[in-house]
Amino acid sequence: MIKRIATVAIYVEDQQKAKQFWTEKVGFEVAVEFPMGRMHSG
After folding, report:
1. Residue 37, Cα to own-chain centre: how many angstroms?
2. Which residues are CB-neighbours of 23 under 8 A, at least 6 positions away?
């Protein structure tokens, strides 16, 4: 049985909905969070 996961990266379209699912429904804890997506300048 897996007892610990060191690193997981999951790319999603809606980061807030995904975070809500994984933390509230599955019970994961967020250790670090980085915004992803296109960087717009100007």
Report:
1. 13
2. 29, 30
